[in-house]
Structure formats: C-alpha cells, structure tokens
Design brief:
Number of strands: 38
Bound molecules: (2R,3S,4R,5S)-2-(hydroxymethyl)piperidine-3,4,5-triol
Helix content: 10-25%
CATH class of one domain: Mainly Beta
Shape: globular
CATH superfamily of one domain: alpha-galactosidase from lactobacil brevis
Largest sheet: 10 strands, antiparallel
Radius of gyration: 27 Å
CATH architecture of one domain: Distorted Sandwich
Distance between the termini: 39 Å
C-alpha cells in the first residue's frame, strides 16, 4: 500500500519510493499538511501538527480552540479572506462580488494507478500497480464550490504529482481568479531557493538565494514558459550540496504563463506555490463546469541536487515522454540552419546530406525557408506549401534524393505563427491573437495564431499532416519564435477574454496530441528560439527540445548544466556549429565543440562540405564515439561533477544503470599559467569493481575513482577538453 488512511486519526500517509507525505484533516475539516520528506514510519504522525495560541493579529478560526488559526495552520490548498493572510492557492469571485470561501474536507477516494488529466500533459503509468492516487474533495458549503485535490505517488520513484480540479457545483456562475497546482507549507525557512533563469541564448542558468521574509517568486507573463524563467524551483536545506542533503524540487507540467515561489511569513514558515500565473487570468465557471489545473511534479531527494535530478530524469524518460522514441536511441542529425540560413537549393541540401552520410550522420534536417516565399524572416509563416522557386521539383523529390543516400529526412515548421505577409493572413486576418482597435505588435515580423480557435487548430492539423503524408519524413522540428502580446481572441466574448492565454495552451496541446499520434513514426523536437519552451508540458508530446540557439561550446556548459537540473539529457538537442560561433563569435576547437555536444542528442549545424580532409577524419571519430556512448548519454544515470557556475572547469559523467559502463566529459574554459595540481572525483561507479580506461591499458578501482579521483587534466590552450571512457573489467 502506498497510500494509508487512518480514519480515526484523519490521517493520510502517502508513500513514494523513499518518500513520505502526510496530510491530516482537523476536527473542523481543514486539510492540513504535516510532512514531506524522507520516508517515516507511522508513529503518531499527527503530533507533527503543533498549534500555538498567537496574538490577535493571527485570528483564531475556532472560538473553542484559540490555537487553531488558518494563518498558521500548514495547509494543502489555502484560501484567502477568512483568516489566512498568506499566499492563497485559489481565489473565486462569487456572484455577490466577494471572494470569501471556506473549503473543508468533504470526502476522499484512493484508487490504483493514475487517472489522466483531460486535455493536459501529465506523467502516466503503464499499469495500475505502479502508483496510487488520492483524491481529496473539499467543499465550500455556502456556494457548492468543490475542489478536488489529486495526489499520485509512484512506487518506483521518489516522485509525487499534484493537481487540482475546481468544480462549480452551485447554481450560479463563478469566476476563478487563481488556481494553483500546488501549495506546500514548510515548517521553517532555513532553505535556499534554486531557480533556472536566463534569456534567449542564455537559458536556464542556475541561481540560488537564501529565503527571506516576504515573497520570492519567478513567473512568466509571456504566453510561454519562456527563456527567462523555467517552471521549476527547488528548496535546498541548510548545507545541501550536489550530492548530500535534503532537496525538494517542484516542476510544472505546463508550457504557458506560470508562477512559482515561496512566501516566508512572520513566524518564518515557508509557503511554496506553483501554478498557472493568476496575472491577467480569469476563468468563468458556469454551474456544472470544472477547471483542471496543470500537474505539478514534486521530487524529494536526500542525496542533494544530483539525486533530485536523477529522479526527475528517470520519471520523465519513462513516464512523461511517450511514443516509439521514448526508449529508442535518437539519430545523429545535421541541420542546415547555420549552414545556409534561407539561402539554399536542392543541390546544396543534397551535398550537405551526402557529406553527412560519408561522415556517419543518420538524419538530415531541412530548417526554415522551404515554404511559401520565405527568403528571409519577413514572410510566409502559415503558408505550408513548398516554395517551387527554391525547390522546383518539390519536397518529395528532395526527400527522395536524401533518402537515396540512406539518410532520414526531417523538416522544420513553425505552425503556431502567421506572417502578416502571407496568403493565410490575407485570407484570415482575424486568425491571430489580437485586440480590436489596438496595434498588432510584431516580433520577428510575425503574429501568433489564435490556438484557442478550433478552425485555426483544424487548419494547422491539416496543413502539417498533408506535408508529413506527402513524403517519408521521420523528424519534425516544431519551432515558435515569439511571445504573446495583445492576448485577445476574436471568438471569445468579453467576459472570457482573459481565458485566452490558457485556452491557447489547451488548443496547442490538442493539436500536438492529434499530430503526434497520427504520425507515431516521426520524432518530434520542440523548439522556441532554442529553449524558450523547454518544459515538461512540451516533453509529453515531443521527446526532445532544441536546448538553445546558442551553440557555442563554452556558453553551452552553463546552459546544458542548468537544463540537466530537471530535464533528462535525452531531451536536449546539442550540435557542433561553425567557428567563429554565430552567436558569440568565439573560436573553440572542433574537439571541444564535439565533446560538449556529445553530452546531448548529438548533431551538426554547419556546412559539412566545408570541412577539410583532416577535419572530416576528426568528425568521423566524434560520430563513432557518439554511437558508442549514446545509450549511456541518453539512458544512463547523469552525474554532475564540476559546475561551470562555480569555477573554470566543468565535468559531468554518464553511468549505465548496471554500473558497467561510463563516459566522462571534462572541459576547462581558460588556461592558467603554471596551473595548480588538482584531482576530480567520479561518481556513480561501483566501488567494488575495476574499470579499464579506453585507449590505455590502465585499470582503476571503482573505489579509487570515487574516493581519490582522477588527476585534473592539464591543457595548453583555452576552451580545452578531454573525455574518458571506462568499462568495468569482467
Ligand atoms: C529559431 C530556431 O531556434 C533556430 O534553430 C532556427 O530553426 C530558426 N528559428 C529558424 O527560423
């Protein structure tokens, strides 16, 4: 049993693999949160609820129990207005214009398995034995408002998922002003909050801050999860490190506007919250209607950040990502974007693909510029038919030329967008997000299709499906290159305009579900100017994401390291590009560009035909190496060894699940004269086995590599790197 219920003590004890989560219903029906952390036995856990009588600025909720105040009670789904002054998880405007509600326990069910979230991406189980789900129903007596809180605990992972369903069971229309996916009260504030923040070409840098009284939060108001903030935060207990200590990570399975943060109150309790951003959000709930929040995934680790990341990686690789590619090694690709930009023809494409084949590459991807009249970024988004000026014999001909080389063929789309200069826009000027009478703000000369409309959704499904059916295409890059402005829909009534941003996401998810399930043999990679929508929501539909438009090997150290805090390495696209690098102008060696890109879904994004013979030999060796290690990179356990945020050196490694096979990548950014001697320790190996280092006859004890480590390599140039391949000696 993973969910225990003791009726007498009104106690729910949820148990994921090594994790406990404890809920208690108070005498008067408030749903209190008692504990989340390392698994504990059930010995009077209700004692964890300590109530203290406070001053009058902390109102008592029950006249006969002065110590019970909602303002101090740790709660599972707090409201605002009837004595809790902290951050509420939900807010509902009632027909009388007020927002005071009072949710109390009504009933609960415990079921095997994990029910799906209708219309939203979520983790799943393949058999009901893998998990149990608790549904707690809370009710506001006066209005009939119901909130159903769902908790799923996985037997095999230290993961618990949460979501909430708000049901209008009353007789009048309600306005939902906020509905978080989770709210979690911690008894104290002795934590650091970690977040992944950045910008376009500088995504998911690791930032940490000590919790302080008041609010610390991140959010997106951009209509997508964004380059700037990722829908993830972790709390690190005092002294927690990469390998040790309690870490609590929460990640939202959602790709739109979100907020996540922690409020520290007057008694230094910390309330963590996460969900759809209430900013500019309002949802009308008519009698009988319900609203489903996205899912939040919670991972507890007692093995520091590294343990937390590996739990997220295992869960997401096996129970978030779906489809045929979930368990398949991913192809090595060459993409023509940085090789040609918009300037290509079929011969040029074929020559890049031919060289790719010679070098051992498996998939050619034709990026932007093959459709409409798209010679630059000012036109044609929405016109998903081939540009006969560029490709006079059509797409089918080009695909067959590439296929004849025994290469797979992939294609770029940006389906959610519309160029004002397009046939589609001339035919349907009201199909974009817009507000009547206001400017339609362009970014990269484009507007955003209103995905909340079913006619728009149908158009996208049909036009993309037609292309995918017209030729043997086995990979799609699904791009999205701007954020939302003038978020209004021509079809929604005034009172529903503030539903547009979330309705857009529901429309997008529905389109993705249709297209990805109709083309199960196609590998989908999501992209939003690189990593502007690198989130668990997109991973549910598309098993990999283009990590960043910045392909510089040095910049990529921080971007890939930060991304790995939550997302599995098998979800990160990583390519070798040309030097000087097109984003930062840096010169780095082919070897280091390769070694950094090898730590992801490997590929090239440059004109392969320009390689010298010597470079071709090196590239062939890189590709062979990747073919040898990709099962480790994509499906092994990932260990971070040295952080690019803490020093000049970065190292990480991949270990097979049976600990017989390992691959280590070490990169030094700037060279020091007369460098100091140093060692770095490996992780994840079996201390009782010996490992042979490929290329040498040397054998190392696993214990030696773990506890004494390897000598830090010495280089004589900047941006230098080295990889190590270890195999256990049988
Ligand atoms: C942004 C993407 O991130 C790039 O890789 C490329 O596909 C361009 N869009 C094409 O417009």
């Amino acid at each position: 049993m993973t969910i225990l219920y003791d009726q007498q003590r009104s106690l729910f004890h949820l148990q994921a693999r090594d994790t406990s989560y404890v809920i208690h219903v108070t005498r008067t029906g408030y749903v209190a949160h008692l504990y989340w952390g390392k698994k504990v036995r059930d010995v009077q856990l209700e004692r964890l609820l300590e109530l203290k009588e406070r001053a009058s600025f902390t109102p008592s909720t029950e006249l006969d129990q002065l110590s019970l105040s909602l303002d101090t009670l740790p709660q599972e789904y707090p409201g605002y207005g009837n004595s809790d002054f902290r951050m509420p998880a939900y807010a509902v405007m009632l027909p009388n214009g007020t927002t005071v509600t009072d949710l109390r326990y009504e009933s609960h069910t415990i079921v095997n398995g994990k029910p799906a979230l209708i219309g939203l991406p979520a983790t799943y189980v393949e058999s009901d034995e893998e998990a149990e789900t608790l549904e707690l129903t809370l009710k506001d007596e006066l209005t009939g408002l119901l909130v159903v809180l769902s908790y799923t605990v996985f037997n095999a992972f230290n993961a618990i998922t949460r979501s909430a369903r708000i049901v209008n069971n009353g007789e009048e229309t309600l306005q939902l002003q906020r509905a978080f996916s989770l709210s979690l009260d911690f008894a104290h504030d002795r934590y650091e909050m970690l977040q992944l923040s950045g910008a376009w070409t500088r995504e998911r840098h690791v930032h940490k801050r000590k919790l302080e009284p008041g609010l610390q939060a991140i959010e997106s108001r951009r209509g997508s999860s964004s380059h700037m903030q990722n829908p993830f935060i972790a709390l690190l207990s005092e002294g927690a490190t990469e390998d040790h200590g309690d870490v609590y990570g929460v990640n939202l399975v959602y790709s739109g506007n979100f907020t996540a943060g922690v409020e520290v109150d007057q008694f230094h309790s910390a309330r963590l919250f996460m969900g759809i951003n209430p900013f500019d959000f309002n949802w009308r709930l008519q009698p009988g209607e319900q609203f489903q929040t996205p899912e939040a995934v919670m991972v507890y680790s007692e093995q520091g950040l590294g343990g937390m990341s590996r739990s997220f990686h295992d869960l997401y690789r096996s129970r978030l990502i779906r489809g045929a590619f979930r368990d398949q090694v991913r192809p090595i690709l060459v993409n023509n974007w940085e090789a040609t930009y918009f300037n290509f023809n079929a011969d040029k494409i074929e020559s890049i693909a031919r060289t790719g084949k010679e070098l051992g590459i498996e998939l050619f991807v034709l990026d932007d510029g093959w459709f409409g009249k798209r010679d630059n970024d000012t036109t044609s988004l929405g016109d998903w038919f081939v540009d006969r000026n560029k490709l006079p014999n059509g797409l089918e001909d080009l695909v067959s030329r590439v296929k004849r080389l025994d290469m797979q063929f992939g294609l770029w789309f940006e389906p959610e967008m519309i160029s004002p200069e397009s046939e589609l826009y001339r035919a349907h000027p009201d199909w974009c997000l817009h507000v009547d009478g206001r400017r339609r703000t362009q970014a990269r000369h484009q507007l955003i299709l209103d995905m909340s409309r079913t006619d728009v959704q149908d158009y996208i499904v049909k036009s993309i499906s037609d292309i995918l059916s017209s030729a043997p295409i086995t990979y799609v890059k699904w791009d999205m290159n701007r954020n939302m402005t003038e978020i209004g829909s021509a079809l929604l009534p005034p009172e529903r305009q503030r539903e547009t941003a979330h309705r857009y996401m529901l429309g997008l998810y529905s389109v993705l579900e249709k297209i990805t399930s109709s083309f199960p043999h196609v590998l989908f990679e999501s992209c939003s100017g690189g990593g502007g929508r690198f989130d668990a929501g997109m991973l549910y539909y598309m098993p990999q994401t283009w990590t960043s438009d910045n392909s510089d090997a040095v910049s990529r150290l921080k971007i890939q390291y930060g991304t790995s805090i939550v997302y599995p390495v098998s979800s990160m696209g990583a390519h070798v590009s040309a030097v000087p690098n097109h984003q930062v102008g840096r010169m780095t060696s082919l070897e280091t560009r390769g070694n950094v890109a090898l730590s992801g879904n490997f590929g090239y994004e440059l004109d392969l035909t320009r390689f010298t013979e010597e470079e071709k030999v090196a590239v062939k060796a890189q590709i062979e190496l990747y073919k040898d290690v990709r099962h480790l990179v994509q499906f092994g356990d990932f260990y971070r060894l040295l952080s690019p945020f803490e020093g000049n050196e970065t190292a990480w490694m991949f270990v097979s699940k049976d600990q017989s096979d390992a691959f280590v990548v070490f990169v030094s950014v700037l060279q020091e004269p007369n460098p100091k001697l140093n060692r770095f320790r490996l992780k994840g190996l079996d201390p009782n086995r010996d490992y042979r280092l490929q290329g040498e006859e040397t054998v190392y004890g696993g214990d030696q590599l773990l506890y004494a480590g390897l000598a830090t390599p010495q280089f004589n140039s900047d941006y230098a790197s080295k990889v190590y391949r270890f195999r256990a000696v049988e």
